[in-house]
Request: fold
Amino acid sequence: MQVVPDPRDVRGRRYGLSSLLAVAVCAVLAGACTFTAVHDWVRDLDRPAWRKLGFADTVPAATTLWRLLIRIDAGVLQQVLTRWLRERSTPLQVTGRRWRLVIAIDGKVLRGARTVDGRQVHLLAAYDTRTGIVLGQVQIETKSKEIPAFTPLLDQVVAQLGSLRGVVIVADALHAQTGHARAVAARGGDFMVAAKANQPRLYAQLKALPWHEIQAGGQQREVGHGRRETRTVKAVTVHTDGGLAFPHAQQAVRITRTRTIKGKTSRETAYYTMSLPASLAQPDDLGAFARNEWLIENALHHVRDVTFREDAHRARTGTGPAVFATLRNTAIGYHRLNGATNIARATRTANRRSTQLIDTVT
Reply:
């Protein structure tokens, strides 16, 4: 925690920065959803717990915590907490020549939060689909600004991992940008991205391939929650003149999803480019990579909304919205590392075991 810059004036500092940040981390791990809830959590602890957190006979007022958390550098805090989580995770083990670590990148609007000029707060995050840890997060201005934020976010990921070697970056069609593909390749990684009408030439190339002549290379079926879904993957190495209209693309991929819900069947076709050759990424691998791209939405953003009520949090001041999003990322990653599949239940358990939680964090 000592590497997080303290934004407070040196005069009048009554409580240590590490103690205040430990309170914020512990409270959100225990399910706190607002600044007020963070203060309520620490206020309700007994005195031995206060002492473990570094307090004597009093704890900081709600305004003291709030004034700090709206001024902390959210980017630095995310990097520090990410390093703490990664130190707790099991060592990375490569399980075969074709194995890759998949990092999903996606943006999220905090619907209840606003910047000082009234705009909604928009964050772009990189999510380690193996561990459930957010490796980096940057705040951007509008949806269209996700594009220039992509490379700074990659640099945060590289700062955590050391390099992108053995890493596949997956993202939605907004990030089917030639600059993104070159940025990933320059850092030693590979890139799988969906293609839609925002890249008309590439999309036309992919759609025009003779898919009816290409044999399906992989198929997955799932049944649950009243739904049947089949995903069929076709992939081909493209040898057209000049290749695909996308840097470093070695394979064209088509994934067809057929869903049956309450007797009604729908079909959706998605096209992708992949920078790994067929020898290193077979159709089953490609299907898994595309499936992992949805994890950042389902296992991170959805949980922040449903369990931590993020969209209802009307944070409006300073870095407060991004800081609290960072704390939520940390809570989700922490509980995922502990094997939790139900984050709401995990936060309730952590709240009942506050002494153990404080020992872990401090």
